[in-house]
Amino acid sequence: MRVFVVYCHPSKKSFTHDIKQVFLKGLNDANHEFVVSDLYEMNFNEEMSEDEYEREAYYRTDIPVADDVIEEQRKIQESDAIVFIYPVFWTEAPAKLVGWFDRIWTTGFAYNPNPQMKVLKKALFILSAGKTMESLEETGESNAMRTVMMGDRIRNRALEKEMIIFDGTTHWDEEQRKERVAVHLNTAYKLGLNF
Fold it and tell me: 3-state DSSP helix/strand/coil percent for the chain, to nearest 5?
């Protein structure tokens, strides 16, 4: 498959960066093709302009789409699957990734009128979280994240959709973090290998 990976983390020294690297190694070892949009490295502009707002709010397909948006949409159209890799910031993706959806999911492309976005075979979300799954489930945060990403943002834009949360990686508990990071990285590699 051809896989479009949207990666969003400000630090190359992060656990999330390591997840991306081993996941891509898995994809490569399984002979998948992939293209990566590293939103911080490419200095992606997550802020919607006034023209973009007018276009989306009033379904004004006569207002042109920006070149950087067209480029990301092209990557989607040329792919079979999409993968998002990012850390959890206050039960949400980083602002840069939220802005990516705001700008890339345009009227006429991702939603009415007459959306042109292809239905992908698969959408996978790989998240790193400091909190444990027990905590995320107890508060309803994990369900909220799934609802926003897989329910609202992906919806019927992919045939299969899944969210994997690599939990318990807070620096408050370095012993737990060390144990979990090793397991999570092994899982991330297998996710790529078995994609």
Answer: 45, 20, 35
DSSP-derived letter for residue 102 is: H
With a cut of 70, list the residues of the chain below it in pLDDT.
none
Closest CA to 125 of 181, 180, 164, 74: 164
Q: pLDDT digits over 113-135, tens only?
A: 889 999 999 999 999 999 999 99
**What distance in Å separates the CA atoms of residue 195 and residue 189, rounded to the nearest whole number?**
10
Closest to 4 in 3D by CA, of 30, 29, 32? 32
Instruction: Give pLDDT, residue 113.
Output: 87
H-helix segments, the chain: 15-29, 50-57, 67-77, 95-104, 133-139, 141-146, 174-193
Q: What gap in Å lies between CA 100 and CA 159, rounded to an integer?
A: 21
Structural tokens at position 32: 């998948």
**Mean pLDDT taken over the chain:** 97
